[in-house]
Design goal:
Shape: globular
Radius of gyration: 14 Å
Oligomer: single chain
Helix content: 25-40%
CATH topology: Translation Initiation Factor IF3
CATH architecture: 2-Layer Sandwich
Structural class: alpha+beta
Number of strands: 4
Order of helices and strands: EHEHEE
């Protein structure tokens, strides 16, 4: 049996901690415009509204919200750009 492991997929980490609504979504949208279809971006935010705004942004723009999890100081979102 082969013990080949799939390499970890590359992702861009974007630190938006300290920014308040609507800046996390606006900056995420601008950053994602330059990414290739299917690219992964991880967003870190401290804005409490991000738990509503980021999923809504993904839904509206057609991106896939892969994960959303709380962190010590806010939330982390992993988004896959629409293909």
């Amino acid at each position: 049996m082969s013990d080949e492991r799939k390499p970890a997929e590359e992702k861009i980490v974007y630190d938006l901690r300290g920014l308040k609504c609507p800046l996390p979504v606006l900056k995420t949208r601008k950053r994602m415009a330059a990414l290739a279809p299917g690219a992964l971006i991880e967003i870190e935010t401290t804005d409490p509204m991000a738990v509503i705004d980021i999923p809504h942004f993904c839904n509206e723009d057609g991106h896939q919200l892969e994960t959303a999890e709380p962190t010590e100081s806010g939330h982390r979102f992993l988004i896959r750009k629409k293909i």
